[in-house]
Amino acid sequence: MPSLFLEVLPREIRDQIYIFCLASRSGAVTLSPWSPQVARSLSLLRTCKQIHRECKDLIFAHSRLSLRPSTQLSQKFKGLLKHGHGRRIRLLKISLELLDRDELEWFASSVKPLGEWARHGRLEAITIVAEWEKPRDVQEFKEIQNLRRHGEVLDGRLFKESSTWTRMVISTGWPRFCHWGKQKWLKEMLLDPSGIHELLLEIHRVFGGTMHVDGMLVFKNGEKIVREYQFHPRNGEIRIVPGTTGNRHAAAKYSDLMAARMTNNHKCP
After folding, report:
1. What is the per-residue pLDDT across 42-81, written as a single tens digit (0 to 9) for each?
2. How many whole angstroms separate alpha carbon 137 and alpha carbon 141?
3. In the 8-state DSSP scheme, what is residue 104?
4. Which InterPro entries does UniProt cross-reference here (predicted)?
């Protein structure tokens, strides 16, 4: 940081600059490390020790910490279901950066509204895929720029949906702060494969029906079909076909139970 900023500007003016950078327009602090807004504003604290001392207490002096009972993705799915077009969707494809614990847990925490889609709409299949881990070509860079330019940020991830009459594609991604080589290293460092099988079973029981993992039938009507199966978090595919009406009612009860359990787990002591 240029020393002139600290030497020339008085503390009162510096405080106004800090507040402009750190205070949230909505009045709520978002603790999402992948949010571009948070990354840009909080980077001010890493400038130097003096600036860190001067502005660290201003974050919560002008903003409050807001705890949401559900994810923004869940609210987005609920909103799409209320929209008339959402009830016509038969095929839904969701693209995630990785199919690891963090990303699947994010999807699992928002899966109940999709169960409502299957029961009250025409949703026939859900496909969840991971991005192919390879250098980006020009078209893929255009798609990323389009996601950043026209998408929105949900739970710290980029989000954009596009649809035809009966098909919807949802693209998600991490904000790009570095080139492809560093992204690959970052994915490798953050990859968490633990507990994936339990998460897949939890997601399956919300819908009933069948779940194929990388083309293999793994779960059917709440039961595991195969003893062992291969799963590729960097380049995998999960396909969900919701069950019949009877199975969907059972899945609805399970979904309500899981929602109540998650609510209890997030209650403050």
Report:
1. 778 878 889 888 888 887 777 666 666 678 899 899 888 8
2. 6
3. H
4. AN11006-like
**Is residue 251 pLDDT above 80, yes or no?**
no
- What is the domain range of residue 172? 72-265
- Same domain, yes or no: 58 and 76: no
Token pair belonging to 37: 């807004």
Q: Which two tokens stand for residue 177?
A: 């702060």
60 and 143, same domain (yes or no): no
Same domain, yes or no: 47 and 152: no
Please tell me the total count of domains within the chain. 2
Cβ-contact 126, 92 below 8 angstroms: yes
Distance CA 252, CA 222 (A): 12
Same domain, 21 and 94: no
Q: Are residues 87 and 20 in the same domain?
A: no
Cβ atoms within 10 Å, residue 267? 7
160 and 220 within one domain: yes
Tokens of 197: 């099988």
181 with 85, same domain?
yes
* Residue 47 confidence (pLDDT): 84
For residue range 190-244, list pLDDT tens digits in order: 777 788 899 999 999 999 999 999 999 999 998 999 988 888 888 889 999 998 7
